[in-house]
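Journal club prep, shared notes

We agreed each person brings one worked example of a sequence with its structure written out as tokens. Mine is Sf6-type phage tail needle knob domain-containing protein. I'm keeping it raw so we can talk through how to read the token line rather than staring at a rendered picture. Sequence first:
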Amino acid sequence: MYNIRTDIIVNGDISYDGELIGKIPVPDISTKNKNILIHENDGLYVPDNTINYQGGTGISITSNLISTKISTTPGNSLTSDSTGLFVPSSSSSYTAGNGISINSNVISSKISNTSGNILTSDSTGLFVNGTNTTNLVRRKRELYYSNLNIQFTDGIEQNLIQILKSLTPTSGTLDTFFNTTSNKLNVYNFNSSLNFKLNIYGTWTTSSSNMSFAINFTNTQFNNINQVRTPTITVDTISFNTFLSVDENGNLVTNGTPITLMSHGGKFTVTNLLLIAEQIVPPSMSGVSVV
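Then the structure, token by token:
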């Protein structure tokens, strides 16, 4: 009788007669020192003790389950089971390619092309740093005045909001864009233009050949519009349509602007007036910057 563990060294095929004590030895399999895979009759096993296995550039597998973790950067681990691929629940930072940074345990939660310039989305729209840029809304004020008797003396500049705040409009309210405390036009702090319209109906009291009527947004650059009329026109509707470019935290946001009117070449008496201002902004913006 031979003890196969102590009496025989197997270095090839063997044959025997009689009873063998112990398991027939089979070769261990190894690709590197201490990187041992053990073969048994029912399959291939990793030893129970923890061993680090290295395989390929950038792939590190730790523990005795070869397929549990995938990593391209130390600590940047993905795990999988029968339900899918997972990021560890603990906070980690994952980077893949230029311009895509993924934080937290939801791989598709955030997209960034500039540091701190985060785009996120949900069922309501696309957000930049928490500001909705998809479902924008129009903020509008429209007022109509009738049966007026506002006189503009030749060459005398007057503030439009200061005039209107003491009058009762036929429709609409003088608020939001029109600050009756500072007598300035105010805007929302958002990168979108403010559209402005003023129609005034009235009568000239002169037949001068140099009649005109002007509007001026005095805190802006060269937004001075002048409407010229011929001597044959006495009853007239003068219309001013323009837009003011608004920059976030820019001049109009931080300072606002007065709106002034002036008649040239004679007195003009206004009897009816239509005033409209509107700006496209995110729905989360409920009020203008009051200045």
